[in-house]
Amino acid sequence: LLAIPLRGEPALRAGCDFVSNLVGYTWQGRDGSPDRLLEPALVLLFDLIGRKHPLRSCRDPRIAATLARLEEANGAWMSMENLARAAGMEPHYFSRVFHREVGLPVKQYQLRLRIRKAMVLLRQDARVGEVAASLGYEDEKSFSRAFRQVAGVPPGEFRKSYLLQP
Description:
Elements: H1 10-22, H2 38-52, H3 61-73, H4 80-87, H5 91-102, H6 106-123, H7 128-134, H8 140-151, H9 155-163
């Protein structure tokens, strides 16, 4: 599974620390019997991680590293050439392998990450123009078009509906 960056995720970091301290390097308790706390703790931890970061297996470690790099970029746009070079692949081949592993083209995957970042900012009561600028969009209109393409609603409507929830 893709390693999930936990910077800025204190609950997930604490969950990982708890599980790692719960039992050293074994799936058993100290007496050799199966550890009764470990399985429920792991189920809860993976449920929490899955809510924040959709997990998917990735057979190619170069693509897994790319996905982690994109998560760490926190919405910043990275060129196909730079990603391919970092993965040690030619851009065209990288594009094909990425699509096969992830199920989306690189550009579409990055767009979804950016919109996910935008949703976080909009939930924090940021204005649409501020969010667009922080994500590097030239104007609010192009940001709104991209947001609507991914989220299905305009960013202003998303912001209002989230802020009006009790």
